[in-house]
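We modelled the chain as a single entity of 441 amino acids. Its sequence is:
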Amino acid sequence: MSWLLLLFGGWCALHAFNAWRPVRRNRVLFVWSFFAAWLTIEAAPFWLVVELAVGAVLVWLGALDHVVGWVGLVLLAVAWVDLLWLVVQGRAATATAAQAFGEFGRQELGGWVPASTGKIVVERNVEYRRVAGKRLRLDVYRPAAEGRGRPAIMQIHGGGWVIGDKREQGIPLLRHLASHGWVGFNVNYRLSPGATFPDHLIDLKAALAWIRQHADDYGIDPDFVVVTGGSAGGHLTALMGLTANDARYQPGFEHADTSVQAAVPFYGVYDFTNRNGTMMPEFHRWIAEPIVIKAFLDDEPERFADASPLDHVRADAPPFLVVHGDKDTLAPVEDARAFVTSLSAVSSSPVIYVELHGAQHAFDVFGSPRTRRMVRAVERFLYVVHQAHAAPATTLPVPSEPRSVVAETAAHATELDRAEPDATDPRDDEAPAQASAATTS
């Protein structure tokens, strides 16, 4: 048992260390490092319980009868301390967001009352486009109660432009917003290698045009549609916000309104040119050049710049809330910082940057403490933007520089936590059972 405790403690300590210092540049280890860190960080409360239980059982079985067992217990204790700190970091997301919002988050536009409307309905597989022999579909998340003029949000899944599906990502945010009166559209689009950029973006603009055309069917306000997404979806979210009504990306529907009223990219990719040297070389050799862009960066740099949100920043961009983790091993946090700095220098709308200390890529796939807090923070951001839309005379505060505050502890209690209980709303947990799924072929 002593050796078993040593092995178990060493395994736990290794994952704890990797969560703090994930591998970014080693082509052999970085995939394992990402998945191991991702699961450790966002499921930290679960692993803490498991490790405590297993450690207690091994000690009870006599693992401390030999010095080897004590070494294993020390390693296990180190892992426990790390997991506790990861939990604290996840809970600090509320303070991080509130500090980043600054005056924007303190806007009093009719009062912020995050009261849930309860049940939601999920309508799956609604076809919005036929192109290149494919039927493209979306899922609709909406309140069960009828309503008109509701705000709408379009969710774009990630997956490196080659994999992913609307059933897998953005679900916590869509369910939460739907229970609070929003209508959400989780959209599929063509994937590479079958699709070549900008096919992905064109599909999403077609989805946005479809959403506006069917505004009456879903009781939404066609003049208020926001967009969000993570990873490749974050990249495409940023482009949706920065290329509104650009005819190059709207072949056959050039006159459709493809503007969005806000963009919320999570852990996105903002630079395909790698001008700052932050991406691993494999990103271009394995993904961008042969699969997504289908060109060589050295030969056609303009095509890679065209795919880079950094090259599309504009003065009339909508409000942006950019969210990124400082432990992201797949989408460099340095590029997110560069994008926010560049956009905020020219945009006449608010550009808010929330950098989450200790967060990995794809952190919001789990319903973790961090995810729950960021869902509420996104709701707060969108509420302020929507209220300003409803009252055109209102001027949203524009920070003189991009705000980025990384909270080290959850001790900084804020108005967001006071406005809504820390625990997950039980109605959110019940949503899957309450939702009725209607499938449209």
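As a brief sanity check on the tokenised model: The radius of gyration is 22 Å. The longest helix spans residues 67-91.
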